[in-house]
Structure formats: C-alpha cells, structure tokens
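Thread amino acids onto this structure.
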C-alpha cells in the first residue's frame, strides 16, 4: 500500500484509499489514540478517519476516556465549511476524550491559529505542541 499523498481524497474513495486513510488513526496505547491528519481536508477523507476514531474511542474493551494525539502538522488551515464539518464530527466524540494534544509542527503564530480553531470546534481539554515529543 502506498503512503499518504499530497492530494485531495474523494469524493469517491477506493477500498485501498479507505484502508490508507483509516491507517492514519491508530491506537498507540490502551488509552491513547494517534490521529495523523492528511495534507488536504475533504469531506470523504474526514468521514473515513472520524469513523475509525469513533470506533477506537467507543471500544468497550478499553478505558472509558482516552487521550488523542491530533497531528495536524502536514495539513493546511481548514476553510469555514470544513470547520463546520469538523465541529459536527467532534461533538459526539468529546465525552470519550480526556485530552487532545494538538501537534502543529509550526511556529507560535500557527499555534495561536490552531488554538482559535480548536476552541471554535468546541474542544476544551486540549493543548498545543510543536512536536509529538513536547506532548508527552
């Protein structure tokens, strides 16, 4: 299977693309999920990845709440339509999330923008980090 490409996924996805996108959401530990965002946000891509996130967060065989490492370091700032979709997708998952570590990989200005967007999505238990190492 190829790796994530710098392209828009969708609106029609092949099974290979669905598998590839799903592989970007993984369980690191029983209480920690890694969500690695792709380069270009699309509705089809977000629906696939949030479906996998939902499955991992609501798994009855793991802790009731989990930490999510949300790595957005390779994606662009979402437009208004995408922010509304993200808000819709995050809302039912928030009761299962203890804390979200948002990894920007960028400078202080990008971190401020990420904080603003996270707040506008309804996320409250989050912190912003430049690298995954800082989030630990």
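Threaded sequence (136 positions):
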């Amino acid at each position: 299977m190829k790796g994530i490409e710098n392209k828009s996924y969708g609106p029609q996805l092949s099974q290979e693309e669905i598998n590839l996108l799903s592989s970007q959401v993984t369980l690191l530990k029983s209480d920690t999920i890694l969500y690695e965002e792709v380069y270009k946000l699309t509705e089809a891509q977000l629906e696939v990845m949030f479906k996998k996130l939902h499955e991992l967060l609501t798994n009855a065989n793991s802790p009731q709440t989990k930490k999510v490492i949300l790595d957005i370091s390779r994606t662009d700032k979402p437009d208004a339509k995408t922010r509304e979709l993200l808000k819709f997708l995050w809302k039912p998952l928030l009761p299962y999330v203890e804390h979200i570590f948002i990894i920007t990989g960028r400078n202080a200005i990008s971190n401020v923008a990420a904080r603003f967007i996270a707040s506008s999505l309804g996320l409250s238990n989050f912190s912003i980090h430049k690298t995954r190492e800082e989030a630990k």
